[in-house]
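Hi R.,

Here's the input for the hypoxanthine complex you asked about:
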Amino acid sequence: MRVGIIGGTGVYGIKGGTLAERVVETPFGEALVFLGTGDLTDVVFLARHGPEHNVPPHMINYRANLMALYQLGVQRIMATFAVGSLKLSLPPGSMVALDQFIDFTHGRQGTFFDGGCYGLAHTDVTYPYCPVLRERLLSLAADRRLAIQPRGTYVAFNGPRLETAAEIRMCARLGGDVVGMTGVPEAQLARELGMHYAAVATSINYAAGLKGPTMIDKSGLDENRALLLSLFVETLRSPFQMSCQCAESVRMKHPPTAWEWRTTGQEAGANKDTPTSEV
Ligand code: HPA
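And here is the predicted structure with hypoxanthine in place:
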């Protein structure tokens, strides 16, 4: 079974195996991925902002990225995010295993179900992150004495600008823990494909106004990066029964293979036997 890791800011590769670059064509455009070799042959790595960090949050092709992983046979994904902290109790360097998000992004291609050839459907995201992967990660982290807050709500803004102090006061009142620009639509697209997707956010600053102007400090990312990524690999490889609903909610039942989309998928309505459970 292939597993996927999506690296955010500060995470552009995984130590311990050479990664072979591959461009994957999808119905939504191309995605650049890195296929692991050696000890990591089962791992596909994707740098969300590109390996040179040159794709801003609002211009990431989230649909191509998730579809590329799907086409490569990935069913389980762990993702990292660099975020701002909405709480003084989460100083820069703190890590949070996400369990909810609130979405303030706009203008993004956030669904595969846009009425085109994959139809129209409403996917359940009551619990948008896979609880089984999250719990497994937390238990492995506890064994290694790596402190990760077990739950947290990610508030997603479009960026690339940072937030105003008033926006951040609103987020904190809404129950947010961390704020970022890339968590949505990634999580919901994974769910639309029936994939198991979990994420850890690392704070690199107090959000705007919490302690004055935003001061980014990426050193916390470096400190725990290697350990976190090795925990991701171990989590994703764990032989457990998935007792979650990730693969059960309304989702694309038969996403196209690369070959199918080239021959049929580009015409709206062409892929008639792509059933989606409609609500
Ligand atoms: N706001 C939004 N996104 C971010 C922040 C922030 O303060 N820090 C890192 N990503």
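One thing worth noting: DSSP finds six helices and ten strands in the chain.

Cheers,
M.
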